[in-house]
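Q: How would the structure tokens look for this protein?
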Amino acid sequence: MEYLDVVDENNQLTGKTEERSIIHEKGIWHREVAVWIMNEKGEILLQKRAAIKKQEPNKWATCAGHIDAGESVESAIIREIEEELGIKVRIEELEFLKTYKKQNDIPSNNIKNYNFQYMYFLKTNWKIEDYKIRLEELSEIKYIPFTEFEDIVKSKDKNVTFTKQSYMPEMIEILRKKL
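A: Here is the predicted structure in token form.
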């Protein structure tokens, strides 16, 4: 079982932990991490979530995941990158961007995902073949040109997890400055 730290609506630790499934069932505030990965051509890495995932199966996303109970934000982002993409990074290679407060209800799965997401950025020269994806996490990865990334966000493509997030116009501007 996976346990997460419970936070309040202001992202303050409450001292409580709860099972991940209960957190999503009841809409309890918790913390997550995400990283936007860009290659030297200014392309954004997208990953297709595995069909067996409970949240957003078969949809394109960025590398993201939960911060386990007692785990630091920095340890969580490094762990998620390695778990999903098979790449080891050092925290010094990552740039912290911002923390976003998110409330996502996914009625089809009866999931209430209320979290504070710590956003990071990584500029890399990794090629697709450098990644070693775990098939229980992902089915595919690809780099897309930044203009295509912008179009996906603007069109609110339903096959992409992050397009419905209110922070995406700001995130596009932040990432554009990284080109």
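The two ends are 40 Å apart (CA to CA).

The helical segments are 20-26, 73-85, 146-155, 168-176.

Upvote if useful.
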